[in-house]
């Protein structure tokens, strides 16, 4: 433990940093939080304060360092995981970001004092999950494009070989120049038709999978972050998957995000949303379970 005088000095420096942060002076805030950490490096909140200032400055790696240090000092560290997820997402590490965001969400919903942050953290979880999905989508589309390129290359290689064979026959006198040119033109026409047929077959064989696959936010449950099958709506107008929400209410008779009193009797079927979910699932059944 640091001496009492150092703790007091660290608190004063933190308060000064808070004032600068509130005024949008993030560099000054970062510096003052750093000085506070020098006085009391055992306080995890000082590291999350500096991480937040560094988030505003887009210093992603230092944010991650601060968050990890803060989490080492305090395991149940909602802000630490929340800021960590944002920085990890910014440097294009969606898998790690999703894990951190889910941890922040879990800690948030377990604490009655943190419920005001629940909607914000829920939105971040969904953003991380979509970023993770987008990377998979780009890779899938890239592979499909590569496959088409490979097949076209095979056709082109064969066409060039045919051209060389015709030219060799011309050189040996097996066929005349005019006849050879006509045969070359015919082979070229065949190659172009095969190429066109290949592209048509390729793109028509699976048109849905050649488009970017996305899940609308309103179809996603705010507790599990999976697509809903049987949504119900609460008194405040927010919808959840029925089974998931009932399981939550058995443990805690409160709204997962607002912490307002909520019972199973308060739930009502969201028929329009259920129809939208069903339609989306049926239309995209070929890939939706990968999401």
TrEMBL record:
- Note the superkingdom of the native organism: Eukaryota
**From which organism does this entry originate?**
Massarina eburnea CBS 473.64
As its record notes, the protein acts as a catalyst of:
S-ubiquitinyl-[E2 ubiquitin-conjugating enzyme]-L-cysteine + [acceptor protein]-L-lysine = [E2 ubiquitin-conjugating enzyme]-L-cysteine + N(6)-ubiquitinyl-[acceptor protein]-L-lysine
Which named protein is this?
A: U-box-domain-containing protein
Keyword annotations for this protein, in alphabetical order, are: Isomerase, Repeat, Rotamase, Transferase, Ubl conjugation pathway
Q: Name one GO biological process term.
A: protein quality control for misfolded or incompletely synthesized proteins
The family database entries (InterPro entries) matched by this protein are listed as: TPR-like_helical_dom_sf, TPR_rpt, Ubox_domain, Znf_RING/FYVE/PHD
Q: Which residues form the U-box domain?
A: 214-287
**A GO cellular-component term linked to this record:** cytoplasm
The record lists the lineage as:
Eukaryota, Fungi, Dikarya, Ascomycota, Pezizomycotina
The GO molecular function terms of this record are:
peptidyl-prolyl cis-trans isomerase activity; protein-folding chaperone binding; ubiquitin protein ligase activity
- PROSITE patterns, from UniProt? U_BOX
Q: Does the keyword Isomerase apply?
A: yes
């Amino acid at each position: 433990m640091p001496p009492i005088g150092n703790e007091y000095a660290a608190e004063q420096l933190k308060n000064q940093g808070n004032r600068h942060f509130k005024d949008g002076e993030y560099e000054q805030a970062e510096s003052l939080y750093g000085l506070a950490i020098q006085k009391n490096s055992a306080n995890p909140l000082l590291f999350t304060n500096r991480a937040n200032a560094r988030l505003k400055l887009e210093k992603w790696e230092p944010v991650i360092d601060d968050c990890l240090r803060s989490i080492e000092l305090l395991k149940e560290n909602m802000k630490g995981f929340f800021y960590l997820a944002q920085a990890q997402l910014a440097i294009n590490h969606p898998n790690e970001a999703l894990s951190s965001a889910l941890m922040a969400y879990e800690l948030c919903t377990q604490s009655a004092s943190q419920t005001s942050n629940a909607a914000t953290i829920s939105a971040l979880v969904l953003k991380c999950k979509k970023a993770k999905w987008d990377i998979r989508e780009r890779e899938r589309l890239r592979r499909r494009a590569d496959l088409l390129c490979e097949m076209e290359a095979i056709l082109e290689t064969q066409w060039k070989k045919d051209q060389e064979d015709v030219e060799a026959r011309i050189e040996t006198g097996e066929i005349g120049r005019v006849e050879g040119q006509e045969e070359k033109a015919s082979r070229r026409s065949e190659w172009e038709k095969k190429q066109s047929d290949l592209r048509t077959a390729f793109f028509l064989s699976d048109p849905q999978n050649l488009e970017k696959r996305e899940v609308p936010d309103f179809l996603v449950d705010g507790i599990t972050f999976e697509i809903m099958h049987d949504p119900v709506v609460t008194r405040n107008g927010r919808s959840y998957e029925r089974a998931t929400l009932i399981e939550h209410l058995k443990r805690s008779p409160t709204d997962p995000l607002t912490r307002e009193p909520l019972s199973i009797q308060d739930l009502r079927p969201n028929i329009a949303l259920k129809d939208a979910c069903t339609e989306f699932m049926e239309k995209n059944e070929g890939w939706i379970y990968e999401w």
